[in-house]
Write a structure and sequence with these properties.
The complex is a heterodimer of chains A (221) and B (246). Chain A is an all-alpha fold and 221 residues long. Chain A has helices spanning 2-17, 19-38, 43-71, 79-83, 89-119, 127-153, 158-185, 190-219. By secondary structure, chain B is of the alpha/beta class. Chain B has helices at 58-66, 109-119, 126-135, 151-164, 181-196, 208-214, 235-243; strands spanning 20-29, 32-42, 47-51, 73-78, 81-82, 94-97, 169-173, 200-204, 217-222, 225-231. Classes of the chains: A mainly alpha (221), B alpha/beta (246). The interface between A and B is medium-sized, with 28 and 35 residues.
């Protein structure tokens, strides 16, 4: 119940302002267009380069989304409303992380066609596997991001702190996602790159559990 | 019921039975202790002023009691339920109104209050909401985003939130700081109603005149401790304690 209330609150806030989504999509489009027109890649180079660029772009898109989804709690001390409510704090973590996950998925849905169009990301080669990689990676990003954003929300320079802490934690996930995406779109069998998916799932499981069990302490000043 | 105010504190006019009891609360920021060993208790239906100079730790103490900050040491219980644990049920009985009223700027008054009540599992009563809007002078503004509200209007909206919620103890941090004379008078009437209903209020204020007028008791926070307390305080007494601080 509280989980759904918090999730619905964040979705409604985003629908009301559309600030996060606009910033996330515009940033992704800018990066894609810049790389598409600034560099002249050979097709072979493009195959190895594009998945990495895509996930790097989505890392920064995720940071923008996290700053917004968690930053809106700072205005008028709204976060105190959640903290003083008779709600298990793990539900605050799960609710806000899920809201961020949905936001990230929508931003990706809107920007992926541009990756296909301008950077020739060969999605049609393995659409099912691509969706699997995208979902698993986004879940891991949301699990890690929600925890770190909750931590940085209470720090004096939290907005600066967020990407600094987040980047090293997300780097293994981004590397795994890039490797898995490259392999899947190159037509390699799943058994050859399933290790990367397992790695991402492991990160997801670890951070979700850490979030559930530690958010009560993290949330308080 | 909880025991009387700790005898070791040496303070008098203790509540006979306590709704909330705090013992030895301590908190530091950057290794500088703000609260050293704060102990107090409040009886049901009491309205208590927490006063002291700027930076003495009033807001910190209220935030700790509300569960927003975690103390480094100390214990507290509300209605025999232990505070500062991961069990969130004690927060049903407590509500907090800070300097800023904990609202989402993009939401309207109605949306903010509905959200707050839903989180506290309190049903929505449109008639009460409309009556309270009328009483607090916010009629016809309920569907505007609160980002266009003045500080005083936000504080009034925070008070409506308290009126609509169920609780036994309210922690109010400078509730009159942005209110005009009419708003402060309205809050005074509300405090009297809450007292009659057996609800307990702990509030901070720098307006000693207003605070003395509405408090049954005053706790003087000094050097991280409750240095003294006054039953039925008067403004000159409160000011004398403040100016007597060294």
């Amino acid at each position: 119940m509280a989980f759904l209330t918090i999730l619905a609150k964040d979705i409604r806030l985003e629908l009301r302002t559309r600030e996060s989504l606009a910033a996330m999509v515009v940033f992704a489009l800018t990066v894609v267009l810049l790389f598409a027109f600034a560099f002249d890649f050979t097709p072979a180079l493009r195959g190895t380069f594009t998945p990495g660029l895509m996930w790097l772009t989505y890392f920064f898109v995720a940071v923008l989304g996290l700053l917004r989804v968690f930053g809106q709690e700072k205005q008028l001390e709204a976060y105190d409303l959640l903290l003083t409510a008779p709600v298990d704090r793990s539900l605050i973590y799960l609710g806000k992380s899920t809201a961020f996950l949905l936001l990230l998925l929508v931003a990706q849905l809107l920007s992926l066609p541009v990756f296909v169009l301008f950077l020739e990301l060969p999605l049609a080669a393995a659409p099912g596997y691509f969706i699997l990689i995208l979902l698993v990676t986004d879940l891991a990003i949301a699990a890690v991001g929600g925890l770190v954003a909750g931590l940085s929300l209470r720090a004096p320079a939290g907005d600066t702190l967020l990407p600094i802490i987040l980047f090293p934690l997300l780097t293994p996930i981004l590397i795994a996602a890039t490797k898995a995406t490259s392999a899947a779109l190159a037509g390699q069998p799943f058994a050859e790159w399933d290790f990367w998916i397992m790695l991402i799932i492991t990160f997801f499981a670890l951070f979700v559990l850490a979030g559930i069990f530690t958010f009560d302490y993290i949330a308080e000043q | 019921m909880q025991c009387l105010w700790a005898r070791s504190s040496g303070l008098t006019s203790a509540p006979v039975t306590a709704l909330i009891t705090a013992t030895g609360i301590g908190k530091s920021f950057n290794l500088r202790p703000v609260l050293r060993e704060v102990s107090f208790s409040l009886a049901p239906g009491e309205t208590v002023l927490l006063f002291g100079r700027n930076g003495c730790g009033k807001t910190t103490l209220l935030k700790i009691m509300a569960g927003i900050m975690r103390p480094e040491r100390g214990q507290a219980s509300l209605d025999r339920r232990e505070l500062f644990t991961s069990d969130c049920r004690w927060r049903y009985d407590m509500i907090y109104l800070g300097h800023r009223p904990s609202l989402y700027p993009a939401f309207s008054a109605r949306e903010n209050l509905r959200l707050s009540l839903r989180l506290r599992r309190v049903g929505w009563d449109e008639t009460s909401f409309q009556n309270l809007l009328e009483r607090y002078g916010l009629s016809d503004r309920e569907d505007e985003p609160v980002e266009v509200y003045s500080e005083g209007m936000l504080q009034r909206l925070g008070l409506i939130r308290l009126e609509l919620s169920r609780w036994k103890l309210a922690l109010l941090d400078e509730p009159t700081s942005a209110l005009d004379a009419d708003g402060a008078s309205l809050l005074g009437e509300t405090l009297a109603r809450w007292r009659t209903a057996g609800r307990t209020v702990l509030f901070t204020s720098h307006d000693m005149l207003w605070g003395a007028e509405h408090a049954d008791r005053a706790l003087h926070l000094q050097r991280g401790r409750i240095a003294s307390e006054l039953a039925s305080p008067t403004a000159p007494e409160l000011l004398a304690r403040l100016t007597g601080e060294t």
